Inverse folding.
C-alpha cells in the first residue's frame, strides 16, 4: 500500500495539516511529551526551558565524521567560552571527557551514532555509544542520525529504534537527526516524511533543517518537538531570521553549530541567538544586540 503520490500532497484536497490549531500539551509544557516517565520528563526539562518552551543547543559534534571542522580546531579555546550561554551541549563523548569540565551546568546531547568518515558513504552508521555509558555521563538525550531515503536507511532506523528501546528503559530521550541523503532535496516534502517517520518510531525530539516554504507543515505533522540545525554559515541577520521563522512556525528551538562558532564573534552571536530563542526577540533586535556586544556596549 505504499503511496508515493501521497507524500507530495501539501494543501491539495484530502490533506489538512490544521496549521492554525496548536497541539494540546496535556499537562506537560512540551508537545507530545505528557505520557513519559518522570526521569525522561526531567531530562527533557533540562534541554527545553520550561518557561520559554524552547532550547538553544550548541552543536559541535561535527568532528565525529569530518575531523577538525573550521571553528572547532580547538574546542577548549573556541567553544568552551560559549558554554555559559547555551542550554545544551551537543557533542561526542570523546570531547566531553577530554575537554568539558564536569562542573558544567549545561545539559548534554550525546552523539550516539557514527562509523563512516566524510570520505565514505555517510548513511552507513551504527550505534557508537552504549546506553550505560550515556547514563554514566549524565546525558540528557542521545542524538541519532537517520537517513530517510539514504543507502542505509533501514540500518539507521534500526539504530534509532534500538536506542529508543534502551532510552525508554533508562529514561533517556532520543533525538533523531534527519540527515539528508545524497539525492534528497532539503524541502518540506522531505522533512515532513523524515520527521514523522522518526516520531512514529519513538524519537522524543526530532532535528530537521528549516525550509523557506511550508515549514509549519513539518512541525504540525510531527507530534514531538522539532529543533532546527543551522546549516552552513550565513550572515548573522539571516541566521537570526531563520531561527525566528522556525520558532514562529512551531519549532521548539535550535541545535546550531556553524552559524555560531564560525561567526566573526561567536560569543556575541550565541547571546543574540539566545535572545531570539528565549526572549522572543525579532531578528533586528537580535542583530542590534549582537552589534552592541561586538562594540562592547552591552
Ligand atoms: C552533524 C549534526 C550537526 O550537529 C548539525 O548539523 C548542527 O550543526 P550546524 O548548525 O553546523 O548545521 O547533526 O550531523
Amino acid at each position: 500500500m505504499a503511496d508515493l503520490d501521497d507524500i507530495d500532497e501539501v494543501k491539495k484536497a484530502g490533506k489538512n495539516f490544521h496549521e492554525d490549531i496548536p497541539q494540546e500539551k496535556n499537562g506537560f509544557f512540551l508537545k507530545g511529551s505528557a505520557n513519559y516517565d518522570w526521569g525522561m520528563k526531567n531530562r527533557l526539562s533540562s534541554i527545553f526551558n520550561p518557561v520559554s518552551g524552547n532550547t538553544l543547543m550548541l552543536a559541535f559534534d561535527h568532528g565525529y565524521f569530518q575531523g577538525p571542522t573550521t571553528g572547532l580546531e580547538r574546542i577548549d579555546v573556541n567553544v568552551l567560552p560559549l558554554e555559559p550561554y547555551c542550554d545544551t551541549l551537543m557533542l561526542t563523548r570523546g570531547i566531553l571527557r577530554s575537554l568539558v569540565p564536569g562542573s558544567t551546568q549545561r545539559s548534554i546531547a550525546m552523539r550516539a551514532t557514527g562509523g563512516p568518515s566524510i570520505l565514505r558513504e555517510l548513511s552507513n552508521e551504527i550505534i557508537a555509544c552504549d546506553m550505560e555509558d550515556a547514563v554514566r555521563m549524565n546525558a540528557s538525550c542521545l542524538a541519532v542520525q537517520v537517513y530517510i531515503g539514504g543507502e542505509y536507511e533501514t540500518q539507521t532506523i534500526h539504530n534509532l529504534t534500538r536506542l529508543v528501546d534502551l532510552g525508554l528503559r533508562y529514561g533517556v530521550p532520543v533525538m533523531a537527526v534527519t540527515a539528508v541523503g545524497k539525492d534528497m532535496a532539503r524541502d518540506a516534502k522531505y522533512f515532513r516524511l523524515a520527521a514523522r517517520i522518526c516520531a512514529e518510531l519513538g524519537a522524543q525530539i526530532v532535528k530537521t533543517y528549516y525550509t523557506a516554504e511550508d515549514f509549519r507543515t513539518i512541525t504540525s505533522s510531527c507530534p514531538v518537538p522539532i529543533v532546527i540545525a543551522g546549516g552552513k554559515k550565513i550572515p548573522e541577520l539571516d541566521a537570526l531570521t531563520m531561527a525566528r521563522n522556525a520558532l514562529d512556525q512551531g519549532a521548539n528551538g535550535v541545535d546550531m553549530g556553524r552559524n555560531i562558532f564560525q561567526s566573526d564573534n561567536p560569543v556575541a552571536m550565541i547571546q543574540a541567538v539566545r535572545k531570539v530563542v528565549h526572549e522572543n526577540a525579532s531578528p533586528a533586535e537580535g542583530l542590534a544586540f549582537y552589534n552592541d556586544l561586538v562594540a562592547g556596549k552591552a
Q: What stands out?
A: The two ends are 59 Å apart (CA to CA). The mean pLDDT is 95.
